[in-house]
Design brief:
This protein has 14 helices and 16 strands. It is of the alpha/beta class and 486 residues long. α1 packs parallel to α14. The structure holds 2-acetamido-2-deoxy-beta-D-glucopyranose (4 copies).
Length: 486
């Protein structure tokens, strides 16, 4: 099966920090508002917040799900331990899907109990499928119909069995830490090919294409790329699979480099007609990386609108909410979020009051009723329920909200429950489940239930969480480095 190898060796991470701090030292003295053009919608929007493969829930409510470590737990076990019946769960797979990936999908999703319905009675359960292209994967999405068909088959199967799919293809595509980083032309062609494959599938009517960059404040996160030095990339092969011919499209202000002041989002917009939901990744990892410091009180809402995380006034990125949610009428999912806390003890120890307080500060500013009222297109939120020893032996990077009893109790007590759509505590084995949801069959011919993808491989375990956290390690360092620039 396809296995992603760690992108950033530790040495490179440290280099990145050094770069970020250097830029910080140079720029800190004159932080000022940046200027960005306001792009306008193309007018051929396929969907809007109400007419959507995953319609927004009624009564101003917000869906809730979590990315979990499938090698450690399954949804029903998560619900039992946390006391939270979430509506959806997140799974990361490589693109293209290998037979081993299918095997893993069958093992973890189809052959284990999965949430079957929502607490509000009108909504199906959900799965966020995040596809991470391997090297060459973007080109394959655009040119290889059978690789696209494999993705469509998975979505079709889930939709027919009552599960809606948030299909998040090549997220954080504007951040250089991804394999598919900073390839606007290839990315847009790939995203469109996947979306058109889904649109052509008659029973994939509950699959929503999710466009989800990294929050643009701090872009390009310490990496000033001089356009006249393409040799930089061959000398530093860790920087994704950047194509020097595409880079100039990222120099949106025409100053000869990819740097602060260039558009972090719009070069990657694949078209109003192929995006159903928009989303962002945004984490807090300490003002200095890993330091247990208070997040800025409205960091999330500031970042969502392109403001300096701390002051909420200085423009540091385009206003994501205004452009993509209001003007382009797309509902918003907070696709990945958490506060990272580094623990120098083991997971088994009792709750730590400092850790609890910091996490609480973060979840209160990202999941709260006032915020939902302020940003009415914010309709879905995803936790990142991981705590792992990663790059530093003996140190646990803890993103979880529910892994210890005290933090879990505080999180549950703070949740604006009446404004959220959970799962119903009813789990079914999807392999056996034949949905009678007639809405699925209204739009077309091929109403026959999809059969599971065939695989001769034994289910394969993917070491995704480990890889993910390595990537996040570099991400948060640079994110914080970028934030400090302001
Ligand atoms: C196209 O995709 C399929 C399915 O992933 C794969 O088996 C095949 O090797 C790909 N073809 C090329 C030319 O890459
Ligand atoms: C609790 O967390 C803080 C911040 O990381 C740390 O300084 C402190 O040592 C921890 N206390 C215990 C008892 O683990
Ligand atoms: C809830 O969100 C609003 C809007 O961003 C913010 O002003 C408020 O401080 C948040 N509440 C808490 C308890 O953090
Ligand atoms: C699903 O089908 C398998 C094989 O037919 C069976 O062993 C299992 O008990 C079924 N599970 C459920 C939840 O019905």
């Amino acid at each position: 099966m396809q296995r992603l190898s760690p992108r950033f060796p530790l040495g490179l991470i440290h280099l990145c920090v050094a770069v970020a701090l250097l830029v910080l030292a140079m720029d800190n003295a004159h932080a000022q508002s940046l200027k960005f053009a306001t792009p306008s919608p193309s007018g051929n929007s396929k969907s809007d917040p109400t007419n959507n493969p995953i319609p927004v829930p009624g009564s101003g409510k917000v869906y809730i799900g979590a990315h979990i470590d499938w090698n450690a737990e399954a949804p029903e076990a998560y619900a039992t331990t946390s006391g939270l019946d979430l509506l959806g769960y997140g799974l990361f797979l490589p693109f293209p899907l290998s037979s081993g990936d299918f095997g893993y999908f069958q093992d973890k999703i189809l052959n284990q109990p999965y949430p079957s319905a929502s607490s509000d009675g009108n909504t199906r359960s959900q799965l966020m499928l995040t596809l991470e292209p391997v090297a060459g994967g973007l080109a394959m999405a655009a040119n290889n119909a059978s690789a696209v068909a494999d993705v469509v088959a998975v979505c079709k199967l889930l939709n027919e069995r009552g599960v809606s799919v948030f299909l998040r293809f090549a997220h954080e595509m504007n951040g250089w830490w991804s394999f598919w980083a900073m390839r606007p032309t290839a990315y847009k062609a790939a995203f469109r090919a996947i979306a058109l494959g889904i649109q052509a599938c008659k029973t994939c009517t509950a699959t929503a294409m999710v466009w989800a960059p990294q929050v643009g404040v701090g872009y390009p996160w310490g990496l000033d790329i001089p356009l006249n030095q393409p040799g930089f990339f061959t000398a530093n092969p860790g920087y994704g699979n950047i194509d020097v011919n595409e880079l100039k499209t990222l120099d949106t202000n025409g100053d000869g480099k990819i740097a602060s002041g260039d558009e972090p989002y719009e070069p990657y917009w694949p078209g109003d007609d192929v995006v159903d939901w928009v989303g962002l990744s945004i984490y807090y990892a300490g003002r200095n990386y890993g330091e247990p410091s208070e997040p800025w009180p409205t960091m999330f809402s500031n970042g969502l609108q392109g403001f300096d995380f701390a002051d909420g006034v200085t423009v540091q990125a385009p206003n994501f909410y205004q452009i993509y949610c209001v003007s382009r009428k797309k509902p918003f999912t907070l696709a990945e979020t958490s506060l990272m806390h580094i623990k120098y003890d083991s997971l088994g120890t009792a709750a730590n009051a400092t850790r609890l307080k910091l996490k609480q500060d973060w979840w209160r500013q990202t999941i709260n009723a006032t915020l939902f009222d302020q940003f009415p297109n914010y309709r879905s939120t995803w936790l990142f329920e991981f705590a792992k020893e990663d790059t530093i032996p003996g140190v646990i990077e803890d993103f979880s909200y529910t892994f210890d009893a005290a933090t879990r109790a505080a999180f549950k007590a703070d949740l604006p429950t009446s404004r959220m759509v959970f799962g119903r505590s009813n789990y079914v084995n999807l392999a056996n489940y034949t949905s009678s949801l007639s809405t699925l069959r209204t739009s077309g011919s091929s109403g026959s239930p999809g059969s599971p993808p065939t695989s001769n491989d034994a289910p394969t375990k993917i070491e995704k969480p480990y890889i993910l956290l390595r990537v996040f390690s570099s991400l948060v360092i640079v994110m914080v480095g970028g934030a400090l620039l302001l």
